[in-house]
Design brief:
The protein is mostly helical and 139 residues long. The chain has one domain. A hairpin with a 6-residue loop joins strand 1 and strand 2. Helix 1 runs antiparallel to helix 5 and helix 4 packs antiparallel against helix 5. The radius of gyration is 15 Å and the shape is globular.
Length: 139
């Protein structure tokens, strides 16, 4: 049973990291993606009316696959920013964390979920190496 939980968590963290990376590119400019702080600030602006914010450390932790975002906060963000890219970001994050309950809203979300399925652990009982198949990122 714990193997299934670990596999699901690994898949979710991978998909979330890919979604964060792609949306930072989208939120940035032609030369570079939005910084962690700029991205956190943009998400926080949408959450400001309900008194919530996102720290740059949270963004870093999500992108580094250390932690998953808070589900309730992503639901609030999806609702608060439902008419712009931040709402789409939150919807895609929810789909990555809870694929049985949510579907990705954008091509970025679909790509990230598909890509996270292609990354798998190989090797012995206690570990191994990561294997992946190269996939073109969405345009």
């Amino acid at each position: 049973m714990s193997g299934a939980i670990l596999k699901t968590t690994h898949r979710s963290k991978t998909a979330v990291a890919l979604i964060v990376q792609q949306y930072r590119i989208l939120a940035g400019n032609q030369r570079k993606p939005a910084t962690l702080r700029e991205f956190a600030r943009a998400l926080s602006q949408a959450l400001q009316p309900i008194g919530r914010r996102v720290s740059y450390q949270s963004i870093k932790n999500w992108q580094d696959r250390l932690y998953l975002p808070d589900t309730l906060m992503m639901m609030r963000l999806a609702q608060a920013a439902r008419h712009d890219w931040r709402g789409e970001f939150a919807a895609d994050i929810l789909a990555a964390m809870h694929p049985q309950d949510y579907a990705p809203l954008t091509e970025i979300g679909r790509w990230a979920l598909g890509r996270s399925d292609e990354i798998r652990l190989t090797g012995g009982h206690h570990g191994g190496q990561k294997e992946s198949v190269e996939v073109q990122r969405p345009r």
